[in-house]
């Protein structure tokens, strides 16, 4: 069961499963915008809000964006941000930030953070992903924002966990 507030601030319980929950990353489609920000489809009746101040680039209807879901400190509402670069820098045991950079060098991301995102992507696309180890690195980067190396490592991680199968035309959810 998932709990959230509806448009009139009433508590709603649903058996529907959102594509993203607080503390998670996902690629979501922008369904509409207004003077305050953008709204993204997260699989529930009420869309997920991303205020303009939390948008890395101005979101446009019909486009998909990588976002992180959190509870806003001021409103206590579930919202999201596309400014995730600072969130993807893990801390080592001494409290210092470590960088694990992709081959592109300009995006910081952990392999362990991408595996769940890839799994979510496959689930959101009817259990199928057309990308595989023969896909062009540019195509993988355009869709996921990660290098082909990071993509392949995430595929290997999901395959070892027996969550997906690798087929000639892509990946399939088990």
Low-confidence stretches: 94-109
Oligomeric state of the chains in view: single chain
Describe the global form: globular
Approximate helicity band = 10-25%
- Write the H/E string, N to C: EEEEEEEHEHHEE
The averaged pLDDT comes out at 81
Alpha carbon gyration radius: 17 Å
> Strand share of the residues?
25-35%
In short:
This protein is of the alpha+beta class and 174 residues long.
Polypeptide structure, described:
Helices cover 20% and strands 28% of the residues. The protein has 3 helices and 10 strands. The chain has helices at residues 111-124, 137-144, 148-160; strands at 2-5, 11-14, 25-33, 37-41, 48-51, 64-71, 78-81, 128-129, 164-167, 170-173. The strands form 3 sheets. Strands 5-4-3-6-7 form a 5-stranded antiparallel β-sheet. It is globular, with a radius of gyration of 17 Å.
Features:
five-stranded antiparallel β-sheet, 10 strands
List the SSEs and their pairings.
Blueprint: E1 2-5, E2 11-14, E3 25-33, E4 37-41, E5 48-51, E6 64-71, E7 78-81, H1 111-124, E8 128-129, H2 137-144, H3 148-160, E9 164-167, E10 170-173
Antiparallel strand pairs: 1-2, 3-4, 3-6, 4-5, 6-7, 8-10, 9-10
Helix pairs in contact: 1-3
């Amino acid at each position: 069961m998932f709990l959230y507030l509806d448009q009139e601030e009433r508590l709603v319980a649903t058996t529907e499963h959102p594509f993203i929950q607080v503390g998670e990353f996902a690629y979501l489609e922008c369904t509409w915008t207004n003077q305050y920000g953008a709204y993204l489809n997260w699989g529930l009746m009420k869309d997920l809000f991303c205020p303009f101040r939390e948008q890395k680039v101005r979101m446009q209807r019909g486009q998909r964006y990588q976002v992180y879901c959190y509870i806003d400190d001021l409103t206590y509402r579930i919202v999201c941000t596309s400014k995730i670069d600072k969130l993807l820098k893990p801390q080592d045991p001494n409290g210092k930030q470590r960088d694990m950079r992709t081959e592109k060098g300009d995006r910081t991301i952990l392999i362990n953070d991408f595996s769940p995102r890839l799994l979510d992507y496959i689930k959101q696309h009817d259990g199928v992903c057309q990308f595989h180890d023969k896909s062009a690195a540019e195509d993988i980067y355009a869709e996921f924002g990660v290098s082909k190396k990071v993509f392949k490592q995430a595929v290997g991680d999901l395959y070892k966990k027996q969550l997906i199968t690798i087929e000639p035309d892509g990946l399939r959810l088990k």
